[in-house]
């Protein structure tokens, strides 16, 4: 990553992979024991690990194991996906497995925020549309799906459905400002003034102005 | 749109500017860090050649991976040792205070902030941990963030956020005996759903909340996130100020206390504050709650039957069926009498001194059922020391509990404290997700510390209010 302008994510195209179920939590997406690491590298292979393997490491039935979905990059889920812990390891694991966008009925907030920080759109659709898209993907694992973040649509087969992308998320992705560090660092002086205005912040806790 | 609530007041005081995304750049008054979610953020900082902007408003502890038995270094688990060393290096390089285990101040991040008085009303507080909502008990605006946001806070002292709606949850009446803050929050989550709070901040109010001590308020705010709300808070009052007065931050500095108290009073929700939504719950009707499933929203009163999946709203049915299969419970039965193998008294929800005292009260003169492995993991080294000073450790040990060092422990099983196979655990923690306690077949039943104590001595889920009879029968 660099301090330069971040990438623009107007749309994501590719093939889909369905993971069904409501309230799929981050402990399922990446079990805590795989978080004993100091970098995110290599997390991809542990995505949904306990759903994918039994105690003897034999594969269980799970879309992430199925050969026809190995190149998929658009994950299709149901309600309250990503609830639970704030671990960014969850979207990191999905991203490193190959996921570039998630379409679902609803998302837990911290999870959606973590996805945005990685440039992964989380777009919401009705229950009906989520289920229809999952069924479509099952039958047509090789068919192209287009997630248009700017226009707020998902197109698959001969169908285009309306989706919702949170306003700030859409702006951030479409204008390429989802990498907020540089953006916010530019306001360092205003931040310092704000800090000084707060009664609980003591002067020596506010950094001195540096000319850089 | 809400107006004049504590959330609005604190937000306005910390808003720096509006970003091109339409989000607000919000100043963060306190950044708490721990070993699991911070190393990657420090790595990103290094990659960009950036420094920590507000090291003196940043505070570190180690909690998730610390062993709770043998804490000598290097840790037996090399991965844990690596995470610890990484954190030590990062805080040293950046000049951040670190409550490592040699200081006597170490503990779960959501226990140590309040106990040292670092957590204060009217602050914005973040941590790379979803239970940061705990600190809202003091009237702070506190929420969990992901690693990229940790990088933002480290580098700039701010986060980019959208303003949320405010729902007031009024818990009226008085709690009956044997009913605790934990039972209130499990009831709220059951009623409003695990995603009911998405897009909202919860303000907890009403007589049943106001009469709670700070620890009870923390248990409630702690689990806001299990209801989908990223933050929850209680307006500060005399109970809050009394707690703060005796902390490290103020005990030798009464003047600063008085100055800040004026600020704390000023950010309370106005009498005529407007809320996006108000929900009222009758506190006197709440009984001890236990979970029967694999989300914190799947709770029932101890005397209530486990619901038929078909009786639930359509989107909850499949989850309920899966949960009942995993937990091996049948609709129509109650949870009373459900066999347990492990009793875990710990976590940032319920491992503070009053929690341990209340549980010890139940345990005293009784014995842990021979079929049960029982452990107490105090929330911090200070909680542990205070409990030992009162002799609570003796009570637990004599009853057959393991008395361990401070940390997250079996709340998420990142150290060696884990469920094995399909063990069932009566747990005072906050998440009963499949695999949460370290074994993917493990079964977690969430409940109050009182109920954990009762289950430990009987070997099964037990209504603590009937324990006298159970034991003498
Ligand atoms: S005790 Fe459990 S919930 Fe609390 S911070 Fe530790 S792991 Fe998270």
Automatic annotation (TrEMBL), chain A:
<feature type="domain" description="Aconitase A/isopropylmalate dehydratase small subunit swivel">
    <location>
        <begin position="10"/>
        <end position="127"/>
    </location>
</feature>
<dbReference type="InterPro" id="IPR050075">
    <property type="entry name" value="LeuD"/>
</dbReference>
<dbReference type="Pfam" id="PF00694">
    <property type="entry name" value="Aconitase_C"/>
</dbReference>
<comment type="subunit">
    <text>Heterodimer of LeuC and LeuD.</text>
</comment>
<comment type="function">
    <text>Catalyzes the isomerization between 2-isopropylmalate and 3-isopropylmalate, via the formation of 2-isopropylmaleate.</text>
</comment>
<protein>
    <recommendedName>
        <fullName>3-isopropylmalate dehydratase</fullName>
        <ecNumber>4.2.1.33</ecNumber>
    </recommendedName>
</protein>
<dbReference type="InterPro" id="IPR015928">
    <property type="entry name" value="Aconitase/3IPM_dehydase_swvl"/>
</dbReference>
<comment type="pathway">
    <text>Amino-acid biosynthesis; L-leucine biosynthesis; L-leucine from 3-methyl-2-oxobutanoate: step 2/4.</text>
</comment>
<dbReference type="GO" id="GO:0009316">
    <property type="term" value="C:3-isopropylmalate dehydratase complex"/>
</dbReference>
<keyword id="KW-0028">Amino-acid biosynthesis</keyword>
<dbReference type="InterPro" id="IPR033940">
    <property type="entry name" value="IPMI_Swivel"/>
</dbReference>
<dbReference type="InterPro" id="IPR000573">
    <property type="entry name" value="AconitaseA/IPMdHydase_ssu_swvl"/>
</dbReference>
<dbReference type="GO" id="GO:0009098">
    <property type="term" value="P:L-leucine biosynthetic process"/>
</dbReference>
<dbReference type="GO" id="GO:0003861">
    <property type="term" value="F:3-isopropylmalate dehydratase activity"/>
</dbReference>
<comment type="similarity">
    <text>Belongs to the LeuD family. LeuD type 1 subfamily.</text>
</comment>
<keyword id="KW-0456">Lyase</keyword>
<keyword id="KW-0100">Branched-chain amino acid biosynthesis</keyword>
<dbReference type="InterPro" id="IPR004431">
    <property type="entry name" value="3-IsopropMal_deHydase_ssu"/>
</dbReference>
<keyword id="KW-0432">Leucine biosynthesis</keyword>
<comment type="similarity">
    <text>Belongs to the LeuD family. LeuD type 2 subfamily.</text>
</comment>
TrEMBL record, chain B:
<comment type="similarity">
    <text>Belongs to the aconitase/IPM isomerase family. LeuC type 1 subfamily.</text>
</comment>
<dbReference type="GO" id="GO:0051539">
    <property type="term" value="F:4 iron, 4 sulfur cluster binding"/>
</dbReference>
<comment type="function">
    <text>Catalyzes the isomerization between 2-isopropylmalate and 3-isopropylmalate, via the formation of 2-isopropylmaleate.</text>
</comment>
<dbReference type="InterPro" id="IPR004430">
    <property type="entry name" value="3-IsopropMal_deHydase_lsu"/>
</dbReference>
<comment type="pathway">
    <text>Amino-acid biosynthesis; L-leucine biosynthesis; L-leucine from 3-methyl-2-oxobutanoate: step 2/4.</text>
</comment>
<dbReference type="GO" id="GO:0046872">
    <property type="term" value="F:metal ion binding"/>
</dbReference>
<dbReference type="InterPro" id="IPR036008">
    <property type="entry name" value="Aconitase_4Fe-4S_dom"/>
</dbReference>
<feature type="domain" description="Aconitase/3-isopropylmalate dehydratase large subunit alpha/beta/alpha">
    <location>
        <begin position="8"/>
        <end position="459"/>
    </location>
</feature>
<dbReference type="Pfam" id="PF00330">
    <property type="entry name" value="Aconitase"/>
</dbReference>
<keyword id="KW-0479">Metal-binding</keyword>
<dbReference type="GO" id="GO:0009098">
    <property type="term" value="P:L-leucine biosynthetic process"/>
</dbReference>
<protein>
    <recommendedName>
        <fullName>3-isopropylmalate dehydratase large subunit</fullName>
        <ecNumber>4.2.1.33</ecNumber>
    </recommendedName>
</protein>
<dbReference type="InterPro" id="IPR018136">
    <property type="entry name" value="Aconitase_4Fe-4S_BS"/>
</dbReference>
<feature type="binding site">
    <location>
        <position position="408"/>
    </location>
    <ligand>
        <name>[4Fe-4S] cluster</name>
    </ligand>
</feature>
<keyword id="KW-0456">Lyase</keyword>
<dbReference type="InterPro" id="IPR050067">
    <property type="entry name" value="IPM_dehydratase_rel_enz"/>
</dbReference>
<keyword id="KW-0028">Amino-acid biosynthesis</keyword>
<dbReference type="InterPro" id="IPR015931">
    <property type="entry name" value="Acnase/IPM_dHydase_lsu_aba_1/3"/>
</dbReference>
<keyword id="KW-0100">Branched-chain amino acid biosynthesis</keyword>
<keyword id="KW-0004">4Fe-4S</keyword>
<comment type="subunit">
    <text>Heterodimer of LeuC and LeuD.</text>
</comment>
<keyword id="KW-0411">Iron-sulfur</keyword>
């Amino acid at each position: 990553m660099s301090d330069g302008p971040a990438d623009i994510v107007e749309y994501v195209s590719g093939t889909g992979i369905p993971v069904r179920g409501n309230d799929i939590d981050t402990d399922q997406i990446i079990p805590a024991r795989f978080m004993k690491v100091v970098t995110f590298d290599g997390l991809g292979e542990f995505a949904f690990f306990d759903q994918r393997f039994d105690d003897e490491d034999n594969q269980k039935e799970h879309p992430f194991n199925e050969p026809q979905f190995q190149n998929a990059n658009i994950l299709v889920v149901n309600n309250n996906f990503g609830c639970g812990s704030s671990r960014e390891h969850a979207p990191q694991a999905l991203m490193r497995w190959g996921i570039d966008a998630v379409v679902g009925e609803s998302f837990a907030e911290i999870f959606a925020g973590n996805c945005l920080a990685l440039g992964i759109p989380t777009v919401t659709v009705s229950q009906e549309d989520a289920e229809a898209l999952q069924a479509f993907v099952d039958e047509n694992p090789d068919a192209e799906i287009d997630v248009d973040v700017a226009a707020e649509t998902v197109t698959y087969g001969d169908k285009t459905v309306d989706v919702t992308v949170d306003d700030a998320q859409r702006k951030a992705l479409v204008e390429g400002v989802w990498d907020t560090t540089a953006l916010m660092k530019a306001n360092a002086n205003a931040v310092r003034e704000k800090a000084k205005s707060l009664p609980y912040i003591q002067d020596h806790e506010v950094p001195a102005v540096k000319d850089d | 749109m809400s107006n004049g609530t504590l959330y609005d007041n604190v937000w306005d005081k910390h808003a720096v500017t509006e970003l091109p995304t339409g989000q607000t750049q919000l100043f963060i008054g306190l950044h708490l860090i721990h070993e699991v979610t911070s190393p990657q953020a420090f790595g990103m900082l290094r990659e960009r050649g950036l420094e920590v902007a507000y090291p003196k408003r940043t505070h570190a502890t180690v909690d998730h991976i610390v062993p709770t038995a043998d804490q000598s270094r290097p840790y037996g688990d090399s991965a844990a040792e690596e995470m610890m060393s990484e954190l030590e290096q990062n805080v040293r390089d950046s000049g951040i205070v670190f409550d490592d285990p040699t200081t006597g101040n170490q503990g779960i991040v959501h226990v140590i902030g309040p106990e040292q008085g670092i957590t204060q009303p009217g602050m914005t507080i973040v941590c790379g941990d979803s239970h940061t909502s705990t600190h809202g008990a003091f009237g702070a605006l506190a929420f969990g963030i992901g690693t990229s946001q940790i990088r933002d806070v480290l580098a700039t002292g701010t986060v980019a956020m959208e303003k949320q709606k405010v729902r007031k949850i009024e818990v009226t009446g008085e709690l009956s005996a044997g009913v605790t803050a934990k039972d209130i929050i499990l009831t709220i989550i059951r009623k409003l759903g695990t995603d009911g709070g998405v897009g909202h901040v919860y303000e907890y109010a009403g007589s049943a909340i106001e009469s709670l001590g700070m620890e009870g308020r923390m248990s409630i705010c702690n689990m806001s996130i299990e209801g989908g709300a990223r933050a929850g808070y209680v307006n500060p009052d005399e109970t809050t100020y009394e707690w703060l007065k005796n902390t490290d931050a103020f005990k030798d500095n009464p003047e600063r206390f008085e100055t800040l108290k004026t600020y704390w009073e000023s950010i309370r929700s106005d009498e005529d504050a407007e809320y996006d939504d108000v929900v009222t719950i009758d506190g006197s009707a709440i009984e001890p709650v236990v979970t029967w499933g694999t989300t914190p929203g799947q709770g029932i009163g101890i005397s209530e039957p486990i619901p038929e999946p078909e009786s639930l709203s359509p989107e909850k049915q499949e989850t309920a069926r899966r949960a009942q299969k995993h937990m091996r419970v049948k609709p129509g039965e109650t949870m009373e009498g459900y066999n347990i193998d492990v009793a875990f008294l710990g976590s940032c929800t319920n491992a503070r001194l009053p929690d341990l005292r209340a549980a010890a009260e139940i345990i005293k003169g009784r014995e842990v059922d021979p079929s049960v492995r029982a452990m107490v993991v105090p929330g911090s080294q200070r909680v542990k020391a205070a409990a030992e000073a009162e002799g609570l450790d003796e009570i637990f040990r004599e009853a057959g509990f393991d008395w361990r060092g401070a940390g997250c422990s079996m709340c998420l099983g990142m150290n060696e404290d884990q469920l094995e196979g399909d063990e069932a655990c009566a747990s005072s923690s906050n998440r009963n997700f499949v695999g949460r306690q370290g074994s993917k077949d493990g079964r977690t039943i969430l409940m109050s510390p009182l109920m954990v104590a009762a289950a430990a001595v009987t070997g099964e889920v037990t209504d603590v209010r009937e324990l006298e009879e159970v034991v003498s029968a």
